[in-house]
Task: structure prediction
Amino acid sequence: MYISEVMTTVPEDKRGELETKVYEELTRLNIKFERVDNDSVETMEECVEISNKLGAEIRKTIICCNRQKTDYYLVVLPANKRFDSKLFASMMRTARVSFASAEDMESLIGLTPGEASVMGILNDPECRIQVVIDKAVADDEWFACNPGANTTHIRIKTRQLLNTFLPAEKHKPEIIML
Result:
């Protein structure tokens, strides 16, 4: 798999709309980042080499909703942690949750399955989706994810994600032990 050297600058070539917005927002908020470009990846197993190169684990992101499709959640977990929908539903005080459809993901955060990333909240100015972060992720020094395309991955300080980026986008994350 191709993985570039680690870079600390905004890409010079044209990128997708969300990825471009991510770099603009990180720059505006003065959040330093490191990034790599890579071959397209769609599974967490494929992200292991990228995690090693960045020195931070690429996080698993799941989009789910309640049965009525009135409450949506963007859930961030460690890469190897299994998502327990029953436990999550009880913690969110809802009867049941299921994975959001590709169409719902597209309309909520502008991403499709395989591309899900917390950076998608840049496409959710109405705060229709609740960000939920596993405590193990919140407690780690580094946070790594794709910036809206699964051909690039970035690393930032987790505290900057929680204390600067998410509040700037008016998303208050709920931190829970899953």
